[in-house]
Design goal:
Strand content: 15-25%
Distance between the termini: 18 Å
CATH topology of the largest domain: Rossmann fold
Helix content: 25-40%
Number of strands: 15
CATH superfamily of the largest domain: NAD(P)-binding Rossmann-like Domain
Number of helices: 18
CATH architecture of the largest domain: 3-Layer(aba) Sandwich
Amino acid sequence: MPAVRGTRSTQSERASARPGPLVAPAASLTDSAAARAQRQITLPGFGEEAQRRLAGASVLVVGAGGLGCASAPYLAGAGVGRIGLLDDDLVELSNLHRQVTHRTSDVGRTKVDALAESVRALDPAVSVVRHRERLTAENALERFAEYDLVLDGSDNFATRYLTNDAAELSGTPLVWGAILQYSGQVGVAWHAHGPGYRDLFPVPPPAESVLNCAVGGVLPGLCGTVGSLMATEALKLITGIGDPLIGRVLLYDALAARTRELHVRRDPAAAPVTELIDYERFCGTTKSAPAAHALGADAADFAEELRGGAAIRVIDVRTAQEFAERRVGSATRIGVDRIESGDLAGDGGGGVDAPIRVYCERDPRSIRAAEALASQGFTDVRFVRGGIAQLARIAPELIVRAADGPSSAGDSEGDA
Protein backbone atom coordinates (compact mmCIF):
# COMPACT_ATOMS: atom_id res chain seq x y z
CA MET A 1 0.00 0.00 0.00
CA PRO A 2 1.14 3.59 -0.51
CA ALA A 3 1.95 5.80 2.44
CA VAL A 4 -1.22 6.78 4.31
CA ARG A 5 -1.93 10.02 6.14
CA GLY A 6 -4.71 9.91 8.71
CA THR A 7 -5.89 10.71 12.22
CA ARG A 8 -8.99 10.16 14.31
CA SER A 9 -11.98 12.33 13.48
CA THR A 10 -13.94 14.49 15.92
CA GLN A 11 -17.70 14.93 16.13
CA SER A 12 -17.49 18.60 15.08
CA GLU A 13 -15.35 17.74 12.06
CA ARG A 14 -17.84 15.09 10.99
CA ALA A 15 -20.70 17.56 11.25
CA SER A 16 -18.83 20.09 9.08
CA ALA A 17 -18.46 17.45 6.35
CA ARG A 18 -22.22 16.98 6.03
CA PRO A 19 -23.38 18.69 2.81
CA GLY A 20 -26.97 19.10 1.73
CA PRO A 21 -28.73 16.88 -0.80
CA LEU A 22 -26.82 16.55 -4.08
CA VAL A 23 -29.81 16.21 -6.42
CA ALA A 24 -33.08 18.11 -6.73
CA PRO A 25 -36.17 15.90 -6.41
CA ALA A 26 -37.96 14.68 -9.51
CA ALA A 27 -41.45 16.08 -10.00
CA SER A 28 -43.21 12.88 -9.02
CA LEU A 29 -42.94 9.10 -8.68
CA THR A 30 -44.83 6.63 -10.81
CA ASP A 31 -47.12 4.29 -8.94
CA SER A 32 -44.74 1.41 -9.71
CA ALA A 33 -41.71 3.33 -8.41
CA ALA A 34 -43.51 4.28 -5.21
CA ALA A 35 -44.59 0.68 -4.63
CA ARG A 36 -41.05 -0.61 -5.20
CA ALA A 37 -39.58 1.89 -2.74
CA GLN A 38 -42.25 1.63 -0.06
CA ARG A 39 -39.91 0.05 2.51
CA GLN A 40 -37.37 2.86 2.25
CA ILE A 41 -39.86 5.72 1.92
CA THR A 42 -41.17 4.74 5.37
CA LEU A 43 -37.68 4.99 6.90
CA PRO A 44 -37.40 7.70 9.60
CA GLY A 45 -35.96 10.86 8.05
CA PHE A 46 -36.23 9.55 4.48
CA GLY A 47 -39.67 10.05 3.00
CA GLU A 48 -41.07 10.58 -0.45
CA GLU A 49 -38.93 13.64 -1.24
CA ALA A 50 -35.71 11.69 -0.76
CA GLN A 51 -37.09 9.01 -3.05
CA ARG A 52 -37.81 11.62 -5.72
CA ARG A 53 -34.20 12.82 -5.40
CA LEU A 54 -33.03 9.29 -6.19
CA ALA A 55 -35.36 9.15 -9.17
CA GLY A 56 -33.81 12.35 -10.52
CA ALA A 57 -30.22 11.25 -9.96
CA SER A 58 -27.63 9.93 -12.38
CA VAL A 59 -24.66 7.84 -11.21
CA LEU A 60 -21.64 6.60 -13.17
CA VAL A 61 -20.14 3.29 -11.98
CA VAL A 62 -16.53 2.89 -13.08
CA GLY A 63 -15.76 -0.81 -13.22
CA ALA A 64 -18.23 -3.64 -13.80
CA GLY A 65 -16.28 -6.17 -11.75
CA GLY A 66 -16.63 -7.18 -8.11
CA LEU A 67 -17.50 -3.76 -6.69
CA GLY A 68 -19.60 -2.67 -9.65
CA CYS A 69 -21.57 -5.92 -9.58
CA ALA A 70 -22.36 -5.28 -5.92
CA SER A 71 -23.12 -1.55 -6.05
CA ALA A 72 -25.02 -1.12 -9.32
CA PRO A 73 -27.93 -3.44 -8.43
CA TYR A 74 -28.39 -1.67 -5.08
CA LEU A 75 -28.45 1.70 -6.85
CA ALA A 76 -31.11 0.38 -9.22
CA GLY A 77 -33.10 -1.28 -6.47
CA ALA A 78 -33.06 1.93 -4.44
CA GLY A 79 -34.55 3.85 -7.36
CA VAL A 80 -31.67 5.79 -8.91
CA GLY A 81 -33.09 6.96 -12.22
CA ARG A 82 -30.05 6.74 -14.49
CA ILE A 83 -27.00 4.52 -14.09
CA GLY A 84 -23.93 4.55 -16.32
CA LEU A 85 -21.65 1.50 -16.45
CA LEU A 86 -18.09 1.97 -17.70
CA ASP A 87 -15.70 -0.93 -18.35
CA ASP A 88 -13.84 -2.42 -21.32
CA ASP A 89 -13.25 -5.89 -19.87
CA LEU A 90 -14.81 -9.26 -20.69
CA VAL A 91 -16.33 -11.74 -18.25
CA GLU A 92 -13.97 -14.59 -17.39
CA LEU A 93 -14.69 -17.82 -15.54
CA SER A 94 -12.37 -16.77 -12.70
CA ASN A 95 -14.55 -13.67 -12.12
CA LEU A 96 -17.68 -15.58 -11.20
CA HIS A 97 -16.83 -16.47 -7.61
CA ARG A 98 -17.13 -12.80 -6.62
CA GLN A 99 -18.79 -10.93 -9.52
CA VAL A 100 -22.10 -12.58 -8.80
CA THR A 101 -24.38 -10.69 -11.18
CA HIS A 102 -22.44 -12.25 -14.07
CA ARG A 103 -23.46 -15.78 -15.04
CA THR A 104 -21.59 -18.72 -16.55
CA SER A 105 -23.42 -18.01 -19.80
CA ASP A 106 -21.88 -14.49 -19.75
CA VAL A 107 -18.28 -15.73 -20.06
CA GLY A 108 -16.73 -14.00 -23.06
CA ARG A 109 -19.26 -11.15 -23.08
CA THR A 110 -18.47 -7.58 -22.11
CA LYS A 111 -18.95 -6.98 -18.39
CA VAL A 112 -20.91 -3.82 -19.13
CA ASP A 113 -23.48 -5.72 -21.17
CA ALA A 114 -23.81 -8.52 -18.62
CA LEU A 115 -24.22 -6.12 -15.69
CA ALA A 116 -26.59 -3.85 -17.62
CA GLU A 117 -28.91 -6.78 -18.27
CA SER A 118 -28.92 -7.69 -14.57
CA VAL A 119 -29.77 -4.10 -13.61
CA ARG A 120 -32.55 -3.84 -16.18
CA ALA A 121 -33.96 -7.21 -15.09
CA LEU A 122 -34.19 -5.82 -11.55
CA ASP A 123 -36.00 -2.66 -12.66
CA PRO A 124 -36.80 -2.11 -16.36
CA ALA A 125 -37.63 1.53 -15.65
CA VAL A 126 -34.01 2.38 -14.79
CA SER A 127 -32.12 4.07 -17.62
CA VAL A 128 -28.85 2.16 -18.07
CA VAL A 129 -26.09 3.68 -20.20
CA ARG A 130 -23.33 1.33 -21.38
CA HIS A 131 -19.85 2.77 -21.84
CA ARG A 132 -17.82 -0.08 -23.35
CA GLU A 133 -14.50 1.65 -22.86
CA ARG A 134 -11.66 2.18 -20.43
CA LEU A 135 -11.60 5.38 -18.42
CA THR A 136 -8.71 7.54 -19.65
CA ALA A 137 -7.41 11.06 -19.25
CA GLU A 138 -8.92 11.74 -22.68
CA ASN A 139 -12.53 10.77 -21.86
CA ALA A 140 -12.83 11.15 -18.05
CA LEU A 141 -13.96 14.78 -17.88
CA GLU A 142 -16.53 14.25 -20.63
CA ARG A 143 -17.95 11.18 -18.88
CA PHE A 144 -18.04 12.80 -15.43
CA ALA A 145 -19.91 15.80 -16.82
CA GLU A 146 -22.78 13.49 -17.78
CA TYR A 147 -23.50 12.34 -14.20
CA ASP A 148 -24.26 13.76 -10.76
CA LEU A 149 -22.04 11.30 -8.91
CA VAL A 150 -19.30 8.75 -9.67
CA LEU A 151 -18.57 5.42 -7.99
CA ASP A 152 -15.05 4.13 -8.58
CA GLY A 153 -14.88 0.35 -8.28
CA SER A 154 -11.71 0.00 -10.36
CA ASP A 155 -8.93 -2.44 -9.50
CA ASN A 156 -5.77 -0.38 -10.05
CA PHE A 157 -4.08 2.72 -8.65
CA ALA A 158 -3.78 4.50 -12.00
CA THR A 159 -7.57 4.61 -12.41
CA ARG A 160 -8.11 5.63 -8.78
CA TYR A 161 -5.82 8.63 -9.14
CA LEU A 162 -7.49 9.45 -12.47
CA THR A 163 -11.01 9.36 -11.00
CA ASN A 164 -9.89 11.49 -8.05
CA ASP A 165 -8.35 14.15 -10.28
CA ALA A 166 -11.24 14.15 -12.76
CA ALA A 167 -13.69 14.48 -9.87
CA GLU A 168 -11.74 17.43 -8.47
CA LEU A 169 -11.52 19.21 -11.82
CA SER A 170 -15.19 18.63 -12.64
CA GLY A 171 -16.51 19.24 -9.12
CA THR A 172 -18.14 15.80 -9.08
CA PRO A 173 -18.60 13.86 -5.82
CA LEU A 174 -16.71 10.55 -5.88
CA VAL A 175 -17.28 7.41 -3.85
CA TRP A 176 -14.32 5.05 -4.07
CA GLY A 177 -13.76 1.53 -2.86
CA ALA A 178 -10.83 -0.88 -2.87
CA ILE A 179 -10.52 -4.55 -1.97
CA LEU A 180 -7.75 -7.13 -1.80
CA GLN A 181 -7.52 -10.52 -0.14
CA TYR A 182 -9.44 -10.13 3.18
CA SER A 183 -9.73 -6.35 3.58
CA GLY A 184 -11.41 -3.37 1.97
CA GLN A 185 -11.67 0.40 2.11
CA VAL A 186 -14.43 2.89 1.33
CA GLY A 187 -14.19 6.67 1.16
CA VAL A 188 -15.78 9.77 -0.35
CA ALA A 189 -13.84 12.46 -2.19
CA TRP A 190 -15.97 15.56 -2.69
CA HIS A 191 -13.42 18.31 -3.05
CA ALA A 192 -15.88 21.12 -2.40
CA HIS A 193 -16.40 19.71 1.09
CA GLY A 194 -13.24 17.83 2.10
CA PRO A 195 -10.07 15.99 1.19
CA GLY A 196 -9.57 13.59 -1.71
CA TYR A 197 -7.79 10.36 -2.49
CA ARG A 198 -4.44 12.13 -2.95
CA ASP A 199 -4.65 13.49 0.60
CA LEU A 200 -4.82 9.91 1.87
CA PHE A 201 -2.29 8.50 -0.61
CA PRO A 202 -0.01 11.38 -1.72
CA VAL A 203 2.08 9.08 -3.93
CA PRO A 204 1.35 5.67 -5.42
CA PRO A 205 3.16 2.60 -4.11
CA PRO A 206 6.09 1.13 -6.08
CA ALA A 207 4.63 -0.76 -9.02
CA GLU A 208 6.40 -3.98 -8.08
CA SER A 209 4.87 -3.97 -4.58
CA VAL A 210 1.26 -3.92 -5.80
CA LEU A 211 -0.75 -7.12 -5.72
CA ASN A 212 -3.94 -7.52 -7.68
CA CYS A 213 -6.78 -9.97 -7.22
CA ALA A 214 -5.29 -12.34 -9.80
CA VAL A 215 -2.07 -12.63 -7.79
CA GLY A 216 -3.17 -11.95 -4.20
CA GLY A 217 -6.72 -13.28 -4.33
CA VAL A 218 -9.90 -11.84 -2.85
CA LEU A 219 -12.58 -13.19 -0.53
CA PRO A 220 -15.83 -13.17 -2.54
CA GLY A 221 -18.16 -11.75 0.13
CA LEU A 222 -15.78 -8.82 0.59
CA CYS A 223 -16.92 -7.49 -2.79
CA GLY A 224 -20.53 -7.51 -1.63
CA THR A 225 -19.71 -5.80 1.65
CA VAL A 226 -17.62 -2.99 0.18
CA GLY A 227 -19.79 -2.58 -2.92
CA SER A 228 -22.96 -2.23 -0.87
CA LEU A 229 -21.23 0.31 1.39
CA MET A 230 -20.32 2.31 -1.71
CA ALA A 231 -23.93 2.25 -2.89
CA THR A 232 -25.10 3.36 0.56
CA GLU A 233 -22.70 6.32 0.50
CA ALA A 234 -24.07 7.29 -2.90
CA LEU A 235 -27.64 7.23 -1.61
CA LYS A 236 -26.66 9.37 1.38
CA LEU A 237 -25.00 11.96 -0.84
CA ILE A 238 -27.91 12.12 -3.28
CA THR A 239 -30.58 12.49 -0.60
CA GLY A 240 -28.61 14.41 2.04
CA ILE A 241 -29.32 11.94 4.85
CA GLY A 242 -26.77 10.77 7.39
CA ASP A 243 -23.04 11.44 7.65
CA PRO A 244 -21.18 10.63 4.43
CA LEU A 245 -17.58 9.42 4.51
CA ILE A 246 -16.16 12.82 3.61
CA GLY A 247 -12.77 13.16 5.28
CA ARG A 248 -13.12 9.63 6.62
CA VAL A 249 -12.14 6.21 5.29
CA LEU A 250 -13.84 3.06 6.53
CA LEU A 251 -11.44 0.11 6.81
CA TYR A 252 -12.95 -3.38 6.92
CA ASP A 253 -11.12 -6.53 8.02
CA ALA A 254 -13.24 -9.50 6.98
CA LEU A 255 -11.20 -12.10 8.87
CA ALA A 256 -11.52 -10.27 12.16
CA ALA A 257 -15.05 -9.03 11.37
CA ARG A 258 -13.95 -5.56 12.49
CA THR A 259 -14.08 -2.06 11.08
CA ARG A 260 -12.11 1.02 11.99
CA GLU A 261 -12.17 4.60 10.79
CA LEU A 262 -9.37 6.78 9.50
CA HIS A 263 -9.80 10.53 9.42
CA VAL A 264 -8.14 12.36 6.53
CA ARG A 265 -7.36 16.07 6.29
CA ARG A 266 -6.37 18.11 3.28
CA ASP A 267 -2.63 18.08 2.63
CA PRO A 268 -1.59 21.76 2.79
CA ALA A 269 1.61 21.00 0.86
CA ALA A 270 -0.14 19.19 -1.99
CA ALA A 271 0.15 20.72 -5.44
CA PRO A 272 -3.24 21.63 -6.90
CA VAL A 273 -4.69 19.42 -9.60
CA THR A 274 -4.76 21.50 -12.77
CA GLU A 275 -4.91 18.85 -15.50
CA LEU A 276 -5.17 15.13 -16.13
CA ILE A 277 -1.82 13.41 -16.65
CA ASP A 278 -0.39 10.08 -17.80
CA TYR A 279 -1.49 8.00 -14.81
CA GLU A 280 0.18 4.79 -15.98
CA ARG A 281 3.51 6.58 -15.94
CA PHE A 282 2.69 8.31 -12.65
CA CYS A 283 2.06 4.92 -11.03
CA GLY A 284 5.10 3.29 -12.65
CA THR A 285 3.06 0.99 -14.85
CA THR A 286 2.54 0.97 -18.57
CA LYS A 287 -0.30 0.46 -21.01
CA SER A 288 -0.47 -2.94 -22.63
CA ALA A 289 0.26 -1.59 -26.08
CA PRO A 290 1.14 -3.95 -28.92
CA ALA A 291 4.46 -2.14 -29.35
CA ALA A 292 5.45 -2.99 -25.78
CA HIS A 293 4.61 -6.67 -26.22
CA ALA A 294 6.71 -6.79 -29.39
CA LEU A 295 9.74 -5.82 -27.30
CA GLY A 296 9.30 -8.77 -24.94
CA ALA A 297 11.55 -11.81 -24.69
CA ASP A 298 10.57 -15.01 -22.91
CA ALA A 299 12.50 -15.65 -19.71
CA ALA A 300 13.35 -19.16 -21.02
CA ASP A 301 14.93 -17.71 -24.17
CA PHE A 302 16.85 -15.20 -22.07
CA ALA A 303 18.12 -18.03 -19.87
CA GLU A 304 19.37 -19.89 -22.95
CA GLU A 305 21.20 -16.78 -24.12
CA LEU A 306 22.94 -16.53 -20.74
CA ARG A 307 23.81 -20.22 -20.64
CA GLY A 308 25.23 -20.05 -24.15
CA GLY A 309 27.48 -17.11 -23.32
CA ALA A 310 25.81 -14.78 -25.82
CA ALA A 311 27.37 -11.33 -26.10
CA ILE A 312 24.42 -9.40 -24.67
CA ARG A 313 24.27 -6.39 -22.41
CA VAL A 314 22.06 -7.13 -19.37
CA ILE A 315 20.50 -4.16 -17.57
CA ASP A 316 18.72 -4.39 -14.21
CA VAL A 317 16.36 -1.41 -13.74
CA ARG A 318 15.36 -2.13 -10.14
CA THR A 319 16.43 -0.29 -6.99
CA ALA A 320 19.82 -0.75 -5.36
CA GLN A 321 18.23 -2.73 -2.52
CA GLU A 322 16.47 -5.12 -4.91
CA PHE A 323 19.68 -5.49 -6.92
CA ALA A 324 21.66 -6.35 -3.78
CA GLU A 325 19.18 -9.04 -2.75
CA ARG A 326 19.28 -10.94 -6.06
CA ARG A 327 20.39 -10.24 -9.62
CA VAL A 328 21.58 -11.77 -12.84
CA GLY A 329 25.33 -12.21 -12.50
CA SER A 330 26.30 -10.20 -15.57
CA ALA A 331 23.81 -7.38 -15.02
CA THR A 332 24.52 -3.69 -14.62
CA ARG A 333 22.01 -1.69 -12.57
CA ILE A 334 20.72 1.42 -14.34
CA GLY A 335 17.55 3.13 -13.13
CA VAL A 336 14.58 3.72 -15.43
CA ASP A 337 14.73 7.49 -14.96
CA ARG A 338 18.30 7.60 -16.25
CA ILE A 339 17.40 5.46 -19.25
CA GLU A 340 14.36 7.60 -20.07
CA SER A 341 16.46 10.75 -19.81
CA GLY A 342 18.51 9.52 -22.79
CA ASP A 343 21.81 9.13 -20.95
CA LEU A 344 22.49 5.84 -22.69
CA ALA A 345 22.07 7.28 -26.18
CA GLY A 346 25.79 8.09 -26.31
CA ASP A 347 26.86 5.15 -24.18
CA GLY A 348 29.75 3.17 -25.57
CA GLY A 349 28.55 -0.21 -24.33
CA GLY A 350 28.57 -1.92 -27.73
CA GLY A 351 26.69 0.70 -29.78
CA VAL A 352 23.05 0.93 -30.77
CA ASP A 353 23.12 -2.39 -32.63
CA ALA A 354 24.39 -4.44 -29.68
CA PRO A 355 21.77 -6.73 -28.09
CA ILE A 356 20.36 -5.42 -24.80
CA ARG A 357 18.17 -7.36 -22.37
CA VAL A 358 16.37 -5.43 -19.63
CA TYR A 359 14.66 -6.90 -16.60
CA CYS A 360 12.94 -5.74 -13.41
CA GLU A 361 11.14 -7.69 -10.69
CA ARG A 362 8.27 -8.61 -12.98
CA ASP A 363 7.54 -6.34 -15.98
CA PRO A 364 6.44 -2.70 -15.61
CA ARG A 365 9.77 -0.91 -15.19
CA SER A 366 11.55 -3.06 -17.78
CA ILE A 367 8.81 -2.32 -20.35
CA ARG A 368 9.29 1.40 -19.79
CA ALA A 369 13.05 1.04 -20.16
CA ALA A 370 12.83 -1.08 -23.30
CA GLU A 371 10.39 1.34 -24.93
CA ALA A 372 12.69 4.26 -24.08
CA LEU A 373 15.77 2.53 -25.49
CA ALA A 374 13.93 1.54 -28.67
CA SER A 375 12.78 5.13 -29.16
CA GLN A 376 16.42 6.27 -28.76
CA GLY A 377 17.58 4.10 -31.67
CA PHE A 378 18.74 0.90 -29.98
CA THR A 379 17.78 -1.80 -32.47
CA ASP A 380 18.04 -5.05 -30.50
CA VAL A 381 16.48 -4.35 -27.12
CA ARG A 382 14.10 -6.69 -25.29
CA PHE A 383 12.56 -6.75 -21.83
CA VAL A 384 12.46 -10.12 -20.06
CA ARG A 385 8.82 -11.16 -19.58
CA GLY A 386 8.12 -11.99 -15.98
CA GLY A 387 11.37 -10.36 -14.88
CA ILE A 388 13.80 -11.84 -12.41
CA ALA A 389 10.90 -13.43 -10.54
CA GLN A 390 10.17 -15.67 -13.53
CA LEU A 391 13.84 -16.26 -14.28
CA ALA A 392 14.47 -17.38 -10.70
CA ARG A 393 11.72 -19.98 -11.05
CA ILE A 394 12.96 -21.53 -14.29
CA ALA A 395 16.73 -20.98 -14.00
CA PRO A 396 17.70 -20.44 -10.36
CA GLU A 397 21.34 -21.24 -11.12
CA LEU A 398 21.63 -17.98 -13.09
CA ILE A 399 20.66 -15.84 -10.08
CA VAL A 400 23.24 -14.34 -7.72
CA ARG A 401 21.82 -13.72 -4.25
CA ALA A 402 23.02 -11.63 -1.32
CA ALA A 403 24.05 -14.76 0.59
CA ASP A 404 26.31 -15.76 -2.32
CA GLY A 405 28.70 -12.89 -1.66
CA PRO A 406 29.20 -9.20 -2.49
CA SER A 407 28.09 -7.84 -5.83
CA SER A 408 30.74 -7.76 -8.50
CA ALA A 409 28.55 -6.43 -11.28
CA GLY A 410 28.44 -2.81 -12.35
CA ASP A 411 26.10 -0.47 -10.51
CA SER A 412 25.09 2.79 -12.13
CA GLU A 413 23.22 5.41 -10.16
CA GLY A 414 19.62 6.31 -10.97
CA ASP A 415 16.66 4.49 -9.48
CA ALA A 416 13.19 4.34 -10.95
